[in-house]
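Incident log, structure service

09:12 report received: a user says their structure output differs between two submissions of the same chain.
09:20 pulled the input from the user's history:
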Amino acid sequence: MPNKENNKFPEEFDKAGDPAKEKKEDLYASKIKIFFERPKEKELVTFLRELAILVEARVPLVRSLNSIKNQKYSPGMIRMVTILQKKVEDGDSLSDGFAEFPEFFSALYINVTRAGEASGRLEKVLNYLADNREKRFELKRKITGALVYPAVILLSFVGVFIFLMVFVMPTLTKTLLGSGVKLPWTTKLIIGMSDFFTSHGILITIVAIVSIVGIWYYSRTREGKDQWDIIELKIPIFGTLLQNMYMNRFADNLGLLLRESVPITKSLEITGNIMGNHIYKDVMEDCVKEVQKGRMISRALERSPHFPSVVSQILRVGEESGKTSETLDKIAEYYTKEVNNMTNNMMALIEPVLILLLGVGTAVIVASVIMPIYNMAGSL
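09:34 re-ran on a clean worker, output below:
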């Protein structure tokens, strides 16, 4: 006679499931939640700072992560730290935990942390990474502010202009044309633009939407991304600002990797991948080939028109003297100041220029409408 208990056991075992599989599914679900509850850059900087302080105080890593987890962070950040804590509890290293979140911790963070764990300098490495992330965040914020401010002003002006053309001018056009007053060419031009917007409004909207979607889609392709990488460096003034930012990113990240004894070819590969522009990534690949041939990094930089000669010259001196990482730190510091100076000057210059342009545009529109009405009133 079959044993009921034996028949029951496999069914209960199936319901229990595979613990490893369930754990993997929980990790995947948590990652999805973290993606939608994305931690802020400031939180990541604070996390690295607090972890460095706790590790320096000889607090075990698991306890350090548990202490940070109980701080006032966003839900996404708490979930991330919880996963890091579980990874460390299971015997993995902190760098292995960082590798679970490549969207927040690039290869730079993973490899530098791994080097710090191997050398016993984890607390110093974490402070370096916090400094690196904070400087990168501040530079990005400054550049974004310099680019976004004029864009918002111009878009606002375009929005007001379209509103006037579509909703205000059609009413005034009937009055002006019916008065029999001779209209200036500027008034005729504005009336023509108003007629075009009102007659072809749907077509213009469709073309605008299709164009925006098409440009966005093309920019997501490899070819489109490569084209934009070239175009952005050729934009007057802004191209120079972006080039300075890339120089800072190159020197700061490569210097950090070399200082932590990451192999030079690996350091160049990582730096290329986090530059954010395929032109500089290609230069880093050339640098790897030069180093593999026993030559200096500066040799490849000298051949690139996208690296200022001052960078390759200073780096060559550092390589010849055996102080490459220290020289890169000096270059990074120099370009940090350059970016700060350029963004401050641009913000100071852009505001009066925009006010002047908007003032002239507004004056032309107002004069084109008011003058005919004034002449019409004078002829009565």
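09:41 both user submissions now match this output. Likely a transient worker issue. Closing.
09:42 reviewer note: The two ends are 116 Å apart (CA to CA). The chain has two domains: 23-105, 132-380.
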